[in-house]
């Protein structure tokens, strides 16, 4: 199996275009198309559906994607180990993360890591928890920054606890209170981020046997905060998400207090590439004493 053909197929499938794949891989679009066609000929079945709008994996192509990612990853690890033997630190690390972590934690981590390992490339993928887990499972990401949720089937490195807060409009009757009673939530018009299923918020209410009156759903938290500012309801989110947003809202601790644990997850730390292992070790040391509430 030729790695060039595998990379052409994988990049085309992920970008949805031979032209975009060509830009990434340094080929012409016709060159990428020929590599994919040759790969399909090797395997004996079609991998991509072609149309005027681009390309998309066939059902068989979807089944092949995890194996192709594995093949390319193993090849990359081989070259990284060879580079390590020669005294070089090279490679690529793909990180899946919440936008809040990529905003507040990762810039300093990446800057320091790149100073020590300038030949290791870093790629960031931002998303909600559902997306991050999917990217990790599909091996599109090497390491994920997210909150812990049981069952935890990954290698897990805890980094910090983060307090959950109620986000209220300034006109709310409890806006001047010291805390917000969690039991009151079922009486409120609730705004739920993460496509209406924020995993941390949902788990919080399940643990406490409460139901929510979800009136609005958003993708990102900043949209939910803006809706709270307009008096459309309340929301609950962890403190790191709310930091530095210029919205005129009230943030209160919950009663009883609630926290989540943020950390790093990998499918297998032992089997990770040398570049990934270096990044995980560096990030864990850098973030080990971080304080989320400031």
UniProtKB/TrEMBL annotation:
Cellular component terms per the entry's GO annotation: cytosol
Pfam family name, one: LysR_substrate
Keywords from the named record: DNA-binding, Transcription, Transcription regulation
One GO molecular-function entry: DNA binding
Start and end residues of each HTH lysR-type domain: 1-58
Domain of life, source organism: Bacteria
Family: Belongs to the LysR transcriptional regulatory family.
Name of the protein in question: Transcriptional regulator
Species in which this protein is naturally found: Cloacibacillus porcorum
């Amino acid at each position: 199996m030729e790695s060039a053909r595998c990379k052409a197929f994988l990049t085309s499938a992920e970008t949805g275009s031979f032209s975009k794949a060509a830009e990434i891989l340094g080929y012409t679009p016709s060159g990428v198309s020929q590599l994919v066609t040759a790969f399909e000929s090797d395997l004996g079945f079609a991998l991509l559906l072609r149309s005027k709008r681009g390309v998309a994996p066939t059902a068989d192509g979807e089944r092949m994607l995890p194996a192709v990612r594995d093949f390319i990853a193993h090849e990359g690890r081989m070259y990284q180990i060879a580079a390590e033997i020669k005294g070089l630190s090279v490679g690529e690390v793909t990180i899946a993360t919440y936008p809040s972590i990529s905003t507040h934690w990762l810039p300093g981590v990446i800057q320091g890591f790149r100073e020590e390992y300038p030949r290791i490339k870093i790629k960031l993928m931002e998303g909600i928890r559902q997306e991050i887990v999917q990217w990790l499972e599909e091996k599109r990401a090497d390491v994920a920054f997210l909150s812990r949720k049981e069952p935890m089937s990954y290698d897990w490195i805890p980094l910090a606890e983060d307090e959950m807060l109620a986000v209220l409009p300034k006109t709310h009757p409890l806006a001047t209170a010291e805390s917000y009673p969690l039991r009151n939530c079922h009486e409120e018009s609730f705004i739920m981020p993460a496509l209406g299923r924020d995993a941390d918020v949902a788990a919080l209410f399940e643990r406490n046997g409460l139901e929510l009156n979800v009136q609005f759903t958003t993708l990102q938290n900043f949209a939910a905060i803006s809706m709270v500012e307009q008096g459309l309801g309340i929301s609950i989110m962890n403190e790191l998400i709310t930091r530095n947003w210029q919205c005129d809202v009230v943030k209160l601790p919950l009663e009883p207090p609630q926290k989540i644990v943020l950390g790093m997850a990998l499918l297998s730390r032992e089997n990770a590439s040398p570049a990934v292992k270096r990044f995980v070790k560096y990030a864990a040391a850098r973030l080990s004493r971080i304080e989320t509430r400031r």
